[in-house]
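Hi, here's the filled form for the chain we discussed.

Project: internal
Contact: R.S.
Residues: 136
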Amino acid sequence: MSGMSDKFDLSSMIADVTGAYLTEVQEAVDAAAEKAAEDLVKLTKQTAPYDEHSRNAKRKKHYRNSIAYQKRTTAVGLSSYIWYVKGADYRLTHLLVNGHQARDGSRVRGNPFLKNACEEVFPKFLAEVEGAVKPK
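And the returned structure, exactly as it came back:
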């Protein structure tokens, strides 16, 4: 065993490989999450209810135009994407999704546009994440 001057540190090699894999997976998941957020916003803007009785065309689509997403980054560098409604219109989401009582006392049924959009977007996102995690 004399001449064993060539040493290698197996633990640092494993750490390097897993670190590179982790970075690759994080980037792929982040890209998939951003695409899912974009798709969710697009789909909810298309399917969200609007004030069809309003004569003001701008008011008709005001809620739809307020739908957006935001990227938030944690202290450790992980990203999350949040679907939300801008301004004071955020209060309408609960009423539109769950229904509410109308001015005349009748009941307005809820519209599950947000749930339906999530059910369409989430399986695609999950498939992309699973594809990113599986070794190539």
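Let me know if anything looks off before we file it.
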